[in-house]
Amino acid sequence: SETFTAAAVDLGASSGRVVLGRIGTDQLDAEVVHRFANEPKRDGMLRWDIDALLGGAVEGLATALAADRSLESVGIDSWAVDYGLLDAGGRLIGAPVHYRDSRTDGIMESVRSRLGDERIYGTTGLQFLPFNTVYQLLAEDAGRLRRAATLLMIPDLLTHALTGAVGAERTNASTTQMYDVSRGAWATELLDELDLPSQILPEIHEPASERGALLSHIKERVGDDGRIRVRAVASHDTASAVAAVPAIDENFAYISCGTWSLVGVELDRPVLSHESAAANFTNEIGVDGTVRYLRNVMGLWPLQECLREWAAEGDRVDLGELLDAAVREPALRSVIDAESSELLAPGEMVSRIRKLCARAGQQVPVTKPAITRCILDSLAIGHARTVQDAVRLSGHRAGVIHLVGGGAQNRLLAQLTADASGLPVLAGPVEATALGNLVVQARAAGALGSQADARALIAATQPVERFDPRGDIDWSPWL
Ligand code: LFR
Fold this sequence. Notes:
Layout: E1 4-11, E2 15-24, E3 27-37, E4 41-42, E5 46-47, H1 50-67, E6 73-77, E7 83-86, H2 107-115, H3 117-124, H4 133-138, H5 142-147, E8 150-153, H6 154-163, E9 168-169, H7 170-173, E10 179-180, E11 185-186, H8 188-193, E12 204-205, E13 209-213, H9 216-222, E14 229-232, H10 237-243, E15 252-257, E16 261-267, H11 274-278, E17 282-285, E18 291-297, H12 301-312, H13 319-327, H14 349-359, H15 368-394, E19 400-404, H16 411-421, E20 425-427, H17 432-444, H18 451-461, E21 465-467
Parallel strand pairs: 1-6, 6-14, 9-12, 15-19, 19-20
Antiparallel strand pairs: 1-2, 2-3, 4-5, 7-8, 10-11, 13-14, 15-16, 16-18, 17-18, 20-21
Helix pairs in contact: 10-17, 13-15, 15-16
The structure holds beta-L-fructofuranose.
Residues 79-81, 99, 236-238, 259-260, 262, 296 line the site of beta-L-fructofuranose.
């Protein structure tokens, strides 16, 4: 039988990877063929090194093609929210700004008090996060914005660099807070009220659609003879990860855990109630028009930042050893709010965590294992609370939690999440985002049928580990 060969370009906040995938009947092999660092740069503002990301993607595609000459398809996903602006000549006006930059400080608050939450949430269904695209655009330099002819989200920006195609892939467009979730179109009236130019927003297209062939100078660098097609995937990484959840029926919650933990359920239609707005749940769009009803929990970011800080002090801690030590720390001794916006910015994470503990009347963690245990206990509580809220607010049932993404490798976190939630946790696949990217390409090419087929294939081929709640500790005071 035929095998479909594709490459997923998956850009994460700290690294990018190119994954070579082969999909056939009962077959799904995926292999990381290229990994590259994603190191934001500071020039007054924190910016993404977009040239390095494009270079990494192109190099990875060349490696993938060299490894398998039957490579015929490429799809790109990344984090959400961020964008590049092109001038009328199609040139990028400055490198994209990082969503963790402080330029948006205070903007969301002023927009909320001016327009009211009901107006904004009722239209967009999006959670209020200070870095949503709409607040970033309001923070833009006026001259830069005036020069802009086109706004492209990060994966669309790379697709444009590879193919010349211009467009806005729907799952990522839905994260901007400029997208009308009920109409499935840009929220142009809301933009008018905010004096933002809606004409820079390109036409929206679907995941699993074709975007074009590689431009000739890219073809040359990749070694492609014209065979490769770029296909739109669920270009928001979280949408790709959810597409790869190996669920066998619909009664599940998911946690896509990496730098962030995205925690929620999959629905047929948005929930736009007062309660939902008050709980700050988001209605982002997934493949086939599904709704990713979820909330952002801080994820492994605080731990990543601690590791970075310790490394800068000359202490390169081994994560495996650190987690082994954290297992032996007493549970629930120091708990912080894993959704606190005070954890958002980069830098000085250890002291910020200690401050949060002190302020909450918790024991202040001193050692590295104690800090790590504090982060993981707090994250598990954030996971459990958010699953509870998602179920309560949506009426959706969840008998199991699928934990996917890099965080699925963290066995302590998986166990603590099961303990805190009282639900079994199925951990894996680790490369869910890349797998979701690959299966959507396969669907676009006609090599895979429905999304249910895609999930069944992933469930049958990818390793998953089960963690049952232990019930030896009472987590209820924290939920
Ligand atoms: C995860 C993610 C989240 C989004 C955050 C910022 O990588 O895409 O879904 O809220 O990054 O874009």
